[in-house]
Amino acid sequence: MTPTTPPPPGAPRAEAVVIGASAGAVDALSALLPTLPADYPLPVMVVVHVPPDKKSVMAELFRNKCRMTVREAEDKEPLVPGTVYFAPPDYHLLVEPDRRLSLSSEEPVHYSRPAIDVLFESAADAFGAGLVGVVLTGASSDGAGGLRAVCAAGGGALVQHPDEAAVATMPRAALAACPKASVMYLEQIAARLRDLGRRP
């Protein structure tokens, strides 16, 4: 597979992207998000496992790196194309059926809040086959059930190659849960995401 492999012929048109990462997230996301253009036609939602008692610097960090608008997600705000939304610390990030974002303080999932599964599963319900889920490096199984939900809804599933991940536990769990997912290196994932934004 080459870095410029396009989405499979006949694949549904992407409407949104969800990304989950944990240990090693900053480096992995730095290989993806800054490569997307300012006019990227999809919203991108990101969950990174961050300590609940500290102010997250993820949005601020990537705001300075990216051409897209980057912000910390707020409750009840509508999704806007060309924007990266980071889940705030100690809140689950969900997508409502009307495709607005919502924040929840429900119990942690896989010991994490925000949890990747919560975002992926709710976004799969909202977008169905129009969703693309991406699981990156991390040290837990969070994201595996969520990616399975994305696959079950007919969406696209991309997983960072375990050999490249800083911590391979999360990609391996995601692949076990969703064997049909495309296994890619970060350069390839970045190219695929750009291709999704160029599709008519």
Automatic annotation (TrEMBL):
<keyword id="KW-0145">Chemotaxis</keyword>
<dbReference type="InterPro" id="IPR000673">
    <property type="entry name" value="Sig_transdc_resp-reg_Me-estase"/>
</dbReference>
<feature type="domain" description="CheB-type methylesterase">
    <location>
        <begin position="7"/>
        <end position="193"/>
    </location>
</feature>
<keyword id="KW-0378">Hydrolase</keyword>
<dbReference type="InterPro" id="IPR035909">
    <property type="entry name" value="CheB_C"/>
</dbReference>
<dbReference type="Pfam" id="PF01339">
    <property type="entry name" value="CheB_methylest"/>
</dbReference>
<feature type="active site">
    <location>
        <position position="22"/>
    </location>
</feature>
<protein>
    <recommendedName>
        <fullName>protein-glutamate methylesterase</fullName>
        <ecNumber>3.1.1.61</ecNumber>
    </recommendedName>
</protein>
<feature type="active site">
    <location>
        <position position="142"/>
    </location>
</feature>
<feature type="active site">
    <location>
        <position position="49"/>
    </location>
</feature>
